[in-house]
Amino acid sequence: MRGFEYYTPTRVIFGKDTHMKAGELLKEYGCKKVLIHYGSGSAVSSGLLDQIKSSLAEAGVDFVTLGGVVSNPRLSKVCEGIELCKKEQVDFLLAVGGGSVIDSCKAIGYGVANPWTDVWNFFLKTEVPKDCLPIGAIPTIAASGSEMSGSCVITNEDGWLKRGSTRSDLCRPKFALLNPRLTYTLPQYQTESGCVDILMHTMERYFVNLETMEITDSISESLMQTVIYNARILMKEPGNYNARAEVMWAGSLSHNGLTGCGTGGGDWACHQLEHELGGLYDVAHGAGLAAIWGSWARYVYLENPERFAQFATNVFDIPCYVDFEKTALAGIEAMEDFFRSIKMPTSLRELGLDLNEKQIHELAFKCSFEDTRTIGVFKQLNMKDMEKIYLMAR
């Protein structure tokens, strides 16, 4: 077990109609003018944006709006938001949408509060942000956990590079209004893709090659079981409030640091591998993770088959055989069977990508930062390893 620091400054208000508290909270935080940042037209057509505007008007909080955030949020939209905030003298950001919108808000917050440099430098990690505009979040999908995390990921259209910022408490939202009802209108694919994202945020921290804390393992295993159980319910009953509530709260807990206490921070190789898929081919993040995870797991599990065996036994109730390797492989297969049961891909072809060896090489080249870095801690992966995993995942 490694020592750790755990800090969760985000104020969470959970339940039905909590989004209507936005104006009251912004006024409480001293906001004078807020940017309402959102994604597609669904925030408008559903009436959600009008409800939030009404809440702000009632509290006497002035606002401007900026929509158009897409899956795998773009740097160009971030730059547009930075300029709008400067022009309108915005002092608070309100994200209404999924992880892409919240991440875009965080990047805008960095850009406005650090005018001395190009915001992209924070994603290249050549500069460190000194401040960030305060952020509030109203998630409309349970997935990224960005509403309680200190990180964000942006795609630069110049080269289609998808990169994450340095983790920092500066960009953690001041508050998150979690209303499971806001996820009702999501397409099934997005709902289940979100469930995979939640699972992967937990598994990235769970699969480490060191002695961990029993309590942290138990929390992680219980969270994974809860998400798996309720993801299956949502396949049959998309309007089940309790299932959506369980998944939404699991999403926040999976990425606020709780499941990483004592694990040294986690592996994150699958996320790095998927970021290149998202950057180049604009795939849904959770679906991309599902497509790559099984190949990663089979490539690395022999580094510590006992850890994978523990996962198999404690998450999927697979009997622990004398041979840890047999149990480990059974657990990997069980997770892939689960992905299939919620109509998530388990290969790149199922994800809709028929890639040749040249394209696979490009993915590995970009993921390795042009063969200058390794990824992962469960097993350190160089560019050749990355290429083999992508090939296995075809």
Automatic annotation (TrEMBL):
Keyword Oxidoreductase attached: yes
UniProt domain Alcohol dehydrogenase iron-type/glycerol dehydrogenase GldA: residue ranges: 9-180
Keywords of the record: Oxidoreductase
Span of domain Fe-containing alcohol dehydrogenase-like C-terminal: 194-391
Pfam families: ADH_Fe_C (PF25137), Fe-ADH (PF00465)
Organism: Blautia caecimuris
Protein name (database record): Alcohol dehydrogenase YqhD (Iron-dependent ADH family)
Domain of life, per lineage: Bacteria
